[in-house]
Amino acid sequence: QVQLVESGGGLVQPGGSLRLSCVTSGRTFSRHTTGWFRQAPGQEREFVATISRSTGNTYYADSVKGRFTISRDNAKNAVYLQMNGLKPEDTAVYSCAASLWEYCQDYGCKRAGEYGSWGQGTPVTVSS
């Protein structure tokens, strides 16, 4: 079973930056894919970004492209989400998830149903 723990959330002013971390423990898989999702109060879960552990391929939601950067440190079993130019609409609980589907390595899975393991989430609030 794969365990994921997020950290780094908090309160930030519009235009500010935060870096979220997702650390994986338990059984690890060399070719899994990690995704970031977010969910605002009263809204559905939304795809943010994903990265392949083996290839490093990255994919982003249009709403965050150019502002957010996903990266990985395989030696630390960690995935990071650098968020710059934050907007109030970025306010949400951010969760990371892991997928073992091989095709996600190349095609960047963006659907929640394609991920089997989830962290508990870390809240991000963007407000002045």
Short description:
With 128 residues, the protein is mainly β. Helix content is 3%, strand content 48%.
Comma- or semicolon-separated keywords:
single chain, 128 residues, mainly beta, 7-stranded mixed sheet, 4-stranded antiparallel sheet, 1 helix, 11 strands, 3% helix
Oligomer class:
single chain
Radius of gyration, in angstroms, nearest whole number: 14 Å
Q: What's the total count of β strands?
A: 11
What is the percent of helical residues? Answer: under 10%
Secondary-structure class: mainly beta
As residue ranges, the low-confidence spans are: none
Sheet of most strands: 7 strands, mixed
**What count of helical segments does DSSP give?**
1
Approximate strand percentage: over 45%
**Based on CA inertia axes, which overall geometry fits?**
globular
C-alpha termini separation: 40 Å
The sequence of SSEs as H and E is EEEEEEEEEHEE
Average predicted confidence as pLDDT: 94
